[in-house]
Design a protein that fits this description.
heterotrimer; A mainly alpha; B mainly alpha; C mainly alpha; B: mainly alpha; Four Helix Bundle (Hemerythrin (Met), subunit A); 2 domains; 6 helices; C: mainly alpha
């Protein structure tokens, strides 16, 4: 009833919104949230392809589990870094943390 | 328009609308709350894909842990006169252009694929228990035990690393 | 076994209603939807009305523990006290603080109650009486608990009050810390019964899991009490602590919702404990007559709830760092070790009979308990010696380190 194209379009749109969030936002945490949106889009894609094109195989769900675990680990480390940078520099705007520049 | 299609359209609207609000909110905490709404919408999409297990896992991991972490981080890094002015970098229009460009490319590539409008395949009768199959696949030696172990080491490294990085050295 | 109202009540009522509504000319899909909606409404309303009885029950028992009578003026034995309180709370004025964020502020009490009521959907009250038979019921319960945690953050932040925010921070830090051993303790019935669904867990408890795996049962009990925020873990919202915590800026029915959510949550964890570890509705004759199953279930639940109230009435409150110590240094390692031990024993004796398996699991649990007690004893002894050598002035030996903010 729902063709796979609908899911893929939604996933592509979500990915691009997340991409815009990563490229255009100043706050480092907002960038991280954009990355989370992109990872969710990837998950939707994986599960859509699994459901429509290979329900008997289990590699789709396994991949989704690994992506989920990796996203959680990445958010934890990313936020720890952001909090640490905030303590030193008292700012989390991505364009103000530029000690390594030039 | 069957009820399932209606639910899909609603869920997709929630996901995309909330995602737009995430990337364009002025206040960081509003972004975090909209992220939670968007993730709920993604969980509903998972249910529509008959992966109910992943919908619940999504709520537990993303909303129950990651979103709360993000909210904590937002609250711990609030500046005194924060959230003043637009939260966009100087070249934000380039970012918007790039995102639109990527979206255009994706849509074009997808449409040129033959299987784009495949109708849904039936699940074989006697329905497989995805939870059980997933569990067996994750720990069987000729399954996916190696990625599973590597992922657990990754999680351990992230745990130790983030505690160490965020430790306040007094 | 024919299908009468005594053997299969939900199916009989649903069929009769379907026939009635279809006879009135409604399409079948809509009828299905309406009947499910009706079931949801009945369950939710029943749960909320039941809280009135629970509040009275608790106040009476806590009163007796403290050697006083409890409510006894309004109605015989003070039964109508809860209704009087309810009327009072309904008629109070809503005061929204200046600068509060309207949407999270109003959404938080709803989410708090919703997060508790949603758990009732997967609990099997009797053999064929349940809301929905999810095959991932245990995970669903954890997911719904996360919604309650979110509600607290939203309440604390949107009140525009730094004490509410502080209270919300401490509360959420406590909740997410105690989720870790709770999830691990919840894994044990899953391992022992081989399924994540609540119905399967109840059906496979020929011997109650309380007797087969007492340590995970204890861990689940303690961590759920911490999740609810009951004494002795009620630092986060006791009246004498940081101006009563995250719900300080709420008045009227919104505060009533938080209050109801807390009591209902306490009862819900008793329901969960009875389902997962005490065999749920199982008992003699419960398979044929769901009503008997319901009666057994209610008896078991009230027994557990009574123990919860006893804990509340008799133990002093923990400090935040004591609670964190208890969680990370005692409960989490204990839960990890007991999962490993139980999984190994269960796998090693997979072919034996039920009695042999249960006895060896019980033995393994007792060994783990003895080892843990030994650890605790030696650590307590070393701390006492440290304190005595440091002088006789030390009041508290548990934590002397300075802990970071939050």
């Amino acid at each position: 009833m729902i063709p796979i194209s609908w899911f893929l379009i939604v996933a592509a749109a979500l990915f691009c919104i997340g991409l815009y969030g990563v490229l255009a936002r100043k706050n480092a945490i907002a960038i991280l949230m954009g990355v989370e949106l992109m990872l969710n889009a990837v998950n939707i894609n994986l599960l859509a392809f699994w459901r429509y094109w290979g329900v008997e195989r289990v590699s789709g769900p396994v991949f989704v589990v690994i992506v989920l675990a990796t996203a959680a680990a990445e958010v934890a480390v990313g936020l720890a870094l952001i909090i640490s940078a905030y303590r030193r520099r008292n700012t989390i705007a991505a364009d103000e943390i530029d000690l390594l520049k030039g | 328009m069957t009820p399932v299609q209606l639910i899909f359209i609603l869920a997709a609207a929630v996901v995309l609308g909330a995602a737009v609000m995430v990337v364009s909110s002025e206040k960081m905490l509003h972004s975090a709350f909209w992220l939670i709404v968007s993730l709920f919408g993604v969980a509903v999409l998972f249910v529509l894909l008959q992966a109910g297990f992943f919908a619940v896992i999504q709520v537990v991991v993303y909303i129950g842990a990651i979103a709360i972490l993000v909210i904590f981080a937002v609250m711990l890094t609030r500046r005194v006169m924060d959230e003043s002015g637009p939260q966009l970098t100087r070249w934000w229009w380039l970012g918007a252009l790039a995102a639109l460009g990527v979206y255009g490319i994706l849509v074009v590539v997808l449409r040129s694929w033959a299987g784009f409008t495949t109708p849904i395949a039936e699940i074989p009768a006697g329905g497989q228990d995805i939870v059980r199959l997933l569990g067996i696949a994750l720990i069987s030696p000729n399954g996916y035990v190696l990625p599973f172990e590597v992922a657990s080491i990754l999680l351990l490294a992230a745990l130790v690393g983030s505690i160490f990085i965020a430790w306040e050295k007094r | 076994m024919e299908t009468t109202i005594w053997t299969d009540p939900i199916r009989v009522i649903a069929d009769w209603l379907t026939q009635l509504l279809v006879g009135w000319g409604l399409p079948a899909g809509l009828v299905f939807f309406i009947i499910n909606l009706l079931g949801v409404a009945v369950l939710a309303t029943g749960a909320m009305l039941f809280v009135l009885f629970l509040i009275w029950y608790e106040r009476k028992i806590v009163g007796r523990i403290q050697d006083r009578l409890g409510p006894n003026r309004i109605g015989p034995f003070g039964i109508f006290q809860s209704i009087a309180d309810m009327l009072k709370i309904f008629t109070k004025e809503y005061i929204t603080p200046l600068g509060a964020d309207k949407v999270p502020y109003n959404l938080a009490p709803i989410m708090a109650v919703g997060g508790v009521l949603l758990i009732w959907a997967v609990i099997p009250f009797a053999d064929r009486v349940y809301g929905v038979d999810l095959n991932v019921g245990v995970l669903y319960i954890i997911a719904v608990g996360a919604i309650g945690t979110l509600a607290i953050i939203m309440a604390g932040w949107s009140s525009n009050n730094k004490y509410a925010l502080l209270g919300a921070f401490r509360s959420v830090a406590l909740l997410i810390s105690y989720e870790v051993p709770m999830v691990m303790a919840l894994l044990v019935p899953v391992i022992l019964s081989g399924s994540l669904g609540m119905n399967d867990i109840v059906r496979s408890q020929a011997i109650w899991y309380l007797f087969v795996a007492p340590i995970p049962a204890l861990i689940f009990f303690l961590t759920s009490m911490a999740e609810v925020g009951r004494s002795p873990f009620d630092l986060i919202e006791a009246e004498s602590e940081i101006v009563s915590g995250f719900n300080i800026e709420y008045s009227g029915l919104k505060f009533g919702m938080f209050y109801v959510a807390e009591f209902l949550h306490a009862f819900t964890i008793s329901l969960l404990f009875a389902t997962l570890f005490m065999g749920g509705w199982r008992g003699p004759g419960a398979e044929q007559f769901p009503l008997l199953g319901l009666i057994y279930f209610v008896i078991k639940t009230f027994f557990v709830y009574f123990v919860v109230i006893l804990f509340r009435g008799s133990l002093p409150r923990f400090r935040t760092d004591q609670m964190m110590d208890l969680n990370w240094k005692i409960l989490t390692p204990l839960a990890l070790v007991s999962i490993m031990v139980i999984a190994v024993v269960e796998k090693a004796l997979a072919g034996s009979s039920l009695v042999v398996r249960s006895a060896s699991l019980l033995l393994a649990n007792l060994v783990v308990a003895l080892v843990a007690l030994q650890f605790l004893r030696s650590s307590g002894k070393s701390q006492r010696e440290l304190a005595e050598s440091a002088g006789a002035q030390v009041v508290d030996t548990v934590s002397t380190r300075e802990h970071t903010s939050i």
